[in-house]
Amino acid sequence: MDAQEAIPLILALDAGGLPVKWLPWQDVVALYCNDKIAWEAGSDNIRLRGGFNPLTGHQSEMFISTIVAVPDRTRRHQNGMVPRLNNRELFRRDRNLCMYCGEQFPSRELTRDHVVPLFQGGPDRWENVVTACRSCNHRKGARTPEQAHMKLLAVPYAPNHAEWLILANRRILADQMAFLSRLVPQQRRMS
Fold it and tell me: Which pLDDT score, from 0 to 100, does residue 4 have?
């Protein structure tokens, strides 16, 4: 891969191999230069080109991996952490689809629906919320889907950290997706 194309984000892992976050290529170059890369896992490399040496006329270049591990283990247990619930992440999880009518909408036309309404004691947790268009949410009101005679198209779930990383980056490379997909529970993997 050549850096003249738009450079994708680099997947950073902890030393134990668990995904931590997405890093811009500039941060990864600094990690390489400071000898802070523990190991590499990407099957692709990105070639970065720098300036020309006035004495030799040669252009500098550097290769960085698309998946790198840093020696820091402070985030070792992050993979088991559930991302914070907010509408942006909820809409990403549900791919901007209304979980009642199945239509896709822009985020500004979506709402957070509580399957068991807050009014009836339902919690504001990942496992009890779905994306709903304004029309379906209004029609459902403060009732459960069964009480409103509406079919819920998918069971709500709490995404793990790997799923959150997938949802957070629209330009994931194939080797990065393959790495993260292994950490997604099998019943939620996309085919």
Answer: 47
